[in-house]
Amino acid sequence: MTRIPVNPELLTWARERAGLDMLALAGRFPKLPEWEAGELQPTLRQLENFARAVHVAIGYLFLPAPPPEPLPIPDFRTLADRELTHPSPNLLDTIYLCQQRQDWFRDYARVHALPTLEFAGSATLQHTPERVAEAMRQTLSLIIAERQQLPTWTDALRQLISKAEDAGVLVMASGVVGSNSHRKLDVEEFRGFALADDLAPLVFINGADSKAAQMFTLAHELAHLWLGESGISDPEAGRLAEPGIENWCNAVAAEFLMPLALLRQDHQGAIPIAEEIQRLARSFKVSTLVALRRLFDAGFIDEPTLWQSYHEELARIRTLDRGGSGGGNFYSTLGARTGKRFARAVLSSTLEGQTLFQDAFRMLGMRKTSTFYEAARELGVML
Fold it and tell me: Which of 33, 64, 62, 34 is closest to 47 using CA atoms?
């Protein structure tokens, strides 16, 4: 039996990169401790299986040392005022997949002479959040009063995604990597990211989050597109962020979803804060944390009250289910995971013979031709 010489450091790197301990892999790889200690070497078959288990290309395991893997886009996430490091394979693969989809759509847009989008990069940090939020609502034809009539947060999110796509944004929302339900995305790692472009601007939303949180993430990432800045974010409305891009995008998103002028008309000061933020959240279809922060922005509560209420509300929210899921019917989730704008473009391009079926399958997460044609019918590309 031929053994493959592998640097034990690479095996440890690959396992830790995937966020796994030895115990999690012990059932499939009982000799892993000996491999990592350099006491025994795996066979080629064992190495291939190990690479699949830790979501790493097997070629990496033949390198002399672990390679650097920086995020391919700017990282605006913070935790305790420190940048997060060591992105997971799930996050990296999601960004790479979205970049591939964006590259394809950019070429598609050029072939079909689609116009460049004037809003992309039209804002600067010197523009007030109120000005940019109003521009975003006008571009998306978003009317707050109409949103307030929608029965649920899910309906409001669907409407916002639809309006963003109609404006030219590729919006993708998923709680898993591609269509692999075994590779779930972690909300604690990231909530979304934006890939700025004037032909194929793209927003990805972590679908494992609550619908209200996804709404704020989408608004936040749209602000990134208006700014013309790609980046990965962890937007949180209640947090008092340091001055800069994230703070500005949070302010734009909050004003976009819950304008202060309307809040001042609707606010009921006699109601306890905990009840008032739930009432406002239902009315504006935002999260209670957004409603709480807006009460502070409007001057209805002071900073100590904000922090006390914020921690109390955060504790309550953490006892609830987020409501996100990586499952569901494939055809009903395809439009969300890839975005209907993107999916329809790929399906129609393939049917016209301009895109290979194998490329369409890869970008849409499909394996069968029958699945492709059913998706085309579901999304109205063919009868």
Answer: 62
Count, residues in the chain: 383
Sign of CA dihedral 160, 97, 220, 167: negative
Sort strands 170-174 and 82-83 into parallel, antiparallel or unpaired: unpaired
- Interval 249-296: pLDDT, tens: 999 999 999 999 999 999 998 999 999 999 999 999 999 999 999 999
Burial of 270 (C-beta count, 10 Å sphere; 0-12/13-18/19+):
exposed
> 103-119: buried (b, 16+ CB within 10 Å) or exposed (e) per residue?
ebbbebbeeeeeeebeb
- Nearest Cα to Cα of residue 237 among 224, 227, 251, 223: 251
pTM (two decimals): 0.88
In the chain, what are the domains?
8-62 (1.10.260), 78-317 (no CATH), 330-378 (no CATH)
Q: How far apart are alpha carbons 139 and 105 in whole angstroms?
A: 21
* Tens of pLDDT, residues 96-146: 999 999 999 999 999 999 999 999 999 999 999 999 999 999 999 999 999
